[in-house]
Amino acid sequence: MENLAIKKLIEKFPVSISETKTFREEVTVMVTRQNIYEISKFLFSDSDLRYDFLTDLCGVDLFPQRPRFEVVYLLYSMKNNQRLRLKIKVEETESIPSVQSIWKAANWAEREAYDLFGIMFENHPDLRRILLWDGYEGHPLRKDYPVKGPDFDKPFVPEV
Amino acid sequence: MAETRFMTINMGPQHPATHGVLRLVLELDGEVVLKATPHIGHLHRGTEKLAESKIYHQVIPLTDRLDYTNATGNNLAYVLAVEKLLGIEVPKRAQYLRVMMTELQRIAAHLIWLGTHALDMGAMTLLFYNFREREEVLRIIEEVAGGRITPTYLRIGGVAKDLPEGIEEKIRAFQQAFPDHVKEYETLLTKNVIWMKRTKGVGIISAEDAINWGVTGPTLRGSGVKWDVRKAFPYSSYDEFDFEVPIGSNGDVYDRYIVRLREMEWSNSIVEQALERLPKGPIITEDPWVALPPKDEVLNDSGALIGHFKMVCEGFHPSKGEVYASVEGAKGELGFYIISDGSSRPYRVRIRPPSFFNLSALPKMIEGSLLADVIAVIGSIDIVLGEIDR
Known about the structure:
The structure holds two protein chains of two kinds.
Chain A: H1 4-12, E1 17-23, E2 26-31, H2 36-45, E3 53-61, E4 69-77, E5 82-90, E6 95-97, H3 106-117, E7 120-122
Parallel strand pairs in A: 2-5, 6-7
Antiparallel strand pairs in A: 1-2, 3-4, 4-5
Chain B: H1 2-5, E1 6-11, E2 23-29, E3 32-39, H2 47-52, H3 60-64, H4 71-86, H5 92-120, H6 125-145, E4 154-155, E5 158-159, H7 167-189, H8 193-199, H9 207-212, H10 218-222, H11 229-232, H12 253-277, H13 295-300, H14 302-314, E6 321-328, E7 333-340, E8 348-352, H15 354-360, H16 362-366, H17 371-381, H18 385-389
Antiparallel strand pairs in B: 1-2, 2-3, 4-5, 6-7, 7-8
Helix pairs in contact in B: 4-5, 5-6, 5-12, 5-17, 6-7, 7-12, 12-17
């Protein structure tokens, strides 16, 4: 069955869709990072698609590949009972538009992607660390971050 | 004078009513909450990072420790994702055992919620009643799986072991007595004037807002959205069971309470159906590339011994790809997004924790209400910090 969302996306954003994949009946669409806000807005508000629920948003580190990160958006349509996965690639130095004004669920999820990967989101109202504390150095879910932490063999001795 | 009018107070992280280590910074005007800022992460253990360095089997015990009131449900979400990645079928008996155990676990999770939620609001009696029944469930889980809080009962491709002898009578005895216990809880709360005054019209979230904030589970259904992963994407043979999805109408604390009570009754009914129709057959897939060989073969056959050794040390190599699988956990949609690069360890394991998204909508529910209502609302969205912080 032809996926309506892909068809509509290719019609509306012919240059932004670089690749579509289906694995185990899950549809993934690679889009360019510049248009992610417009594409999200379209998928959210189109009356046939109505992807009104952001199930999840997370980062993936592809180190040492370039561009380094992927950001994965898992959308769900309550109306059609259908999922759609959007993916964008982003370089370490680049930032991507925030979608939290479309789905409020993205607010904390984007903060987490920033916290654990160091991915920057533009127009996010409150881009702070969320799981780790302010002042923490590094982003632990990056592949070049050691599992035991950088200070594993350097026990913290407070000054007396 | 204007500046002295407002006060900022800190609630938690060690506060008995925050159900774990949640810290809330509340800006108050008298008793009215103007702004609430949750601070989380006190229980962060790096589960996602840890999972990347383990073989697929070794991740199962980590998932027990996410939402520690609903361990079997967490196991199920993870093994479903891995099974989807491998593209394997699970034997029917294992599917029914999974359903039965996760529904028993859901009852236990809802009981601990009800007890602590009522305790927060001053109704202490209920906690003793709830823990009495929860203990019975935990005894059953212990007898079946060997552990109480973190049973790690599920395996990739099936379950760890078959039901021990005589357990079916015990489950049936619990299951038959349970509806009366729910009535008992209801006599204490449902028409209790103090309870109704503290919960009705408190912490309201509309259906549109709940969907927009990514809220799932009983909290979403309390707002009148009839959505349940067990119905939307039936897994583990849920489509063969007869059950309703209870919903509320106002989206307040009281509705969420009613939804969870009804859910316990339906879970109980699912346990009954699973027990009655439990098919015979193997409890784990016979695929030697996924499951460990049976123990008696390992002891008598060198080929099986080598296979066992290889499986424990090296695990299996799923094909390259990415999958997302989710279950209706006790708190909402619990999902695992796994990326495989073809090696024996997952490249990335992303956990979609329901409590994380439910909690992010907390400011929306409590801003503008009274400080005392904050306690009621936190209790009603049923958060577990082990899952939020991961």
